[in-house]
Amino acid sequence: MKSADIRRKFIEFFVEKGHKVEPSASLVPVEDPSLLWINSGVATLKKYFDGRLTPENPRIVNSQKAIRTNDIENVGYTARHHTFFEMLGNFSVGDYFKEESIVWAWEFLTSPKWMGLDPERLSVTIHPEDDEAYQVWSEKIGIPVERIVKLEENFWDIGEGPSGPNSEIFYDRGESFGDQSDPECFPGGENERYLEIWNLVFSQFNHNADGSYTPLPKKNIDTGMGLERMASILQDVPTNYDTDLFQPTIQEICKKAGVEYNKDPETDTALKVIADHVRTIVFAVGDGVLPSNEGRGYVLRRLLRRAVRYGRKLGIERPFLYELTGIVATIMKDYYPEPVEKQEFIERVIQGEEERFLETLADGLRILEDLVHHAQNEGRKSITGKEAFKLYDTYGFPVDLTEDFAREHGMSVDHEHFQQEMEAQRERARMARHETESMKIQGGALADLNVSTQFVGYSELATETKVA
Ligand code: ATP
Ligand code: MG
Ligand code: MG
Ligand code: MG
After folding, report:
1. Are 243 and 103 in contact (CB under 8 A)?
2. Does residue 194 have its Cβ closer than 6 Å to ligand 1?
3. Each residue's pLDDT tens digit, 402-436
4. Are 126 and 164 in contact (CB under 8 A)?
């Protein structure tokens, strides 16, 4: 089944159940200072759940673009994580609750008319105190109790906004993906065997700004299913990157680099990271975010630089990401017209930023040459941590390139002191930001900031060059 068909069927199924289709909203949150990026389907619907607005229809279905920078370290390593992905969701604003949401999720997943998954391969997790969910899963649906796992962490809470117990559905991909002898090999554990596909959130509380919880006047349902993961199951491939959502991009990168996919794990990781990041970049720029030194623009800049560096690992040393815009746009145009409509603009932004980064790298190399000479004159065999950090911090010159270069000149880099400098910088960043609870989900490598980017219009491109 093609990914576009999964998306279409999901929407069709819930329309049949009386839901109204809500179009995918921009990745840039509207009137929500607590979020840097839209990171889930419900993030754009908060206004209905907290009672600020009444929806036309209390049953809503959507396919929402989402960005999660906190998953960046997983990209290219796990089969299932992206920085940009699509979340399919059905929502009830004070209308139906637990029972219907579970019954419909099961019907959609197992009915041959819809996804047709083998029920024997499905298991679920619930919150230990959620007797109601337990009863529906075991009695109404008839899942054997050993496939209903109780987990304390099944309480959905992203800070301010709706919260409550949740229940997640996992697909067993079989023994070749993990063995029972591994203590993490269970639904909800860190493993590649039990693939989390759908999260059903039963929101019954509001998490208030002061940290307290109050029962919501009406109970809500909020669910999220990863389109890429469903596609990997239905296309019977080992990772999301082997689906029709990524393969055309990966094949094109292979052509540019003169490499083959599925031959060498390190090459594959680079291909996956590039294919992932370029999608995020294309959609972020399509939604009006421009590379800059703060907020979303900074995340965008870091993602692009990361993708360029993975390109260099594959031997691509010229601007190339921008040339992938058209492929990404074509893969996604079924549901998201923006990248096609703005293709030329997106290409221009990406190309400009790639060129600037390559210049930065060239500048950094010149400075590095001086540093090496200086060190050699002093009879040193290594670049100090401070020097490597300055290159990184002031010129945006990645430390692994510094290390490569040093090695080529028979030298090393004082890694320990470099790390100390990095930690000191992180500490400064931590002090500088007043992190809201919701920002934590955006944490990790890319989000040491919470300043918003100004959108300056499609004609103006960002001009800054030197950042870390
Ligand atoms: P995981 O445990 O696999 O990291 P999660 O529990 O963080 O996923 P949720 O916040 O429950 O994910 O999001 C709902 C659904 O969205 C998940 O069940 C999954 O199908 C999908 N999803 C979440 N994060 C990602 C991601 N980074 N890339 C692709 N799909 C994702
Ligand atoms: Mg996660
Ligand atoms: Mg999870
Ligand atoms: Mg989850």
Report:
1. no
2. no
3. 887 888 889 999 999 999 999 998 888 777 665 44
4. no
d(CA 383, CA 371): 7
173 lines ligand 1 (CB under 6 A): no
Q: How large is the ipTM?
A: 0.99
Residues 6+ apart with CB under 8 A from 243: 3, 228, 231, 232, 235, 237
Torsion of CA 431, 437, 441, 445, to 10 degrees: 0
Q: Phi/psi at 376 (nearest 5 deg)? A: -65, -40
Q: How far apart are CA 357 and CA 346, in angstroms?
A: 17
- Residue 336 has phi, psi (to 5 degrees) of -125, 100
Tell me the Ramachandran region of residue 41: left when phi exceeds 0, alpha when psi lies from -120 to 50, beta otherwise: alpha
Write phi, then psi, for 389 (nearest 5 degrees). Answer: -65, -40
Query: For the residues of 256-304, what is the DSSP string, one character each?
Result: HHT--TTS-HHHHHHHHHHHHHHHHHHHHHHTT----SSHHHHHHHHHH
Tell whether ligand 1 has an atom less than 6 A from the beta carbon of residue 80. Answer: yes
Element housing 412 (H / E): strand 412-413
